[in-house]
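Incident review: delayed structure delivery

Summary: a single-chain prediction request sat in the queue longer than the usual turnaround. Root cause was a stuck worker, restarted by the on-call engineer. No data loss occurred. The affected request and its eventual output are reproduced below so the record is complete for anyone auditing the incident later.

Affected input:
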Amino acid sequence: MTHSIPIRRDGRHLATALYLAAGNVPVLPLRAGKGPFGNCPDCADNACGGRPNMKTPGTCRCPQPCHAWAAATTAPATLQSPAWAKAWRQAHAVAYHPGGAGLTVVDLDNADAVTWARETLPATRTVPTTRGEHWIYRGAMRSVNGVRDGVDIKSSMSYARWLGPGAGTMTDLPEAVRALAIMESSTAREAPQAIAMPARAGDGECPHRMPAYLDRGIAMAEQRITEARSAVHTTVYRTFLAVLSAHGRCGCLTDTHIARLFTAAQAKGEGPRHCADAWANARTALGM
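Output delivered after worker restart:
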């Protein structure tokens, strides 16, 4: 980048954010501990469907930087707005949304992971971290944590801490990195996380119509998730909400039905814990 951004009285973090935004890199402030800022009042207790740790957003469109990667922006007016002023004053670091910038970060969290990357992955731009390195590739993909010991993939629906421009020439995202996500997803789909359901009513058959009604509803829910091209998290949450609204109180849902929904969500990049949180949030929203 060759942009020159003046230092503002808000501090060096906002200046860094404006510099990155000028290069079309979506950014947001981070509090101490590398965490995003908490929910705004409109989304208290994740009423919008976000995950409890605030690292994944729900369905709202808040002006405040309260929903992690979804709050990342390149708009100078938003970054310098009164709604963000307090966050920048309290910020301890700047984060960016790699997927929003068309990038993927391979986060290597220890020396063994760095050694593995040097032996396995094509060279690209690298940035030193506290315990390892960030390897940055050109190209976006879904984000997956724990693809192997000490290795996370941060791209779409994720954020990475800005630690400087790094060194080396950025290269295209290799198939070796994409394959790591496929392998992790396949393992996760083999054992979807079970969720405790309300007690079944009667003999477990749906009282609304014939049993085929439930099967057709689950199939339609799977299709809705599978066909999502954007806002996957929101689609998963709303689909879970719709299924529970129709069948959550009659006791007809089984672990097999839930596993089908979780498998469809995981195939779109949602992790087992994320599925569990979205399911729990949907139940809470319905008063279950």
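Verification: The chain is about 40% helix and 15% strand.
Action items: add queue-age alerting; document worker restart procedure.
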